[in-house]
Amino acid sequence: MKILIADDSRVMRQIVTRTLRQAGYDGLELIEAEDGAQLVQKANDEKPDLVLSDWNMPNMTGIEAIRALRASGNNTPFGFVTSEGTQEMRDTASAAGALFLIAKPFTAETFKENLDSILG
Fold it and tell me: Residue limits of the Response regulatory domain (predicted)?
């Protein structure tokens, strides 16, 4: 399994990586993107099995990135890991094709609840 982690914070990408391991997902191939534009490019070039994306990033936000992927026919499973989790954002994410929205702070258990059906 290959997972693309997109967040403009290197520290947050490392925290997501560590949380994936704490949740028991070992042996994953992890690739990273620093913004939404890189996310779209790497999602198309490297064909990950799952994208975990921040919402707020430079160059292209996470919601803009998923909309660009879906518009180009890329249906890679996509979830948000973001600092905001209002119902409006969850509804917007779902309407764009996201499978879930995990709000920070999160735990390994939260990751398992959302990812087991995809990575299980």
Answer: 2-119
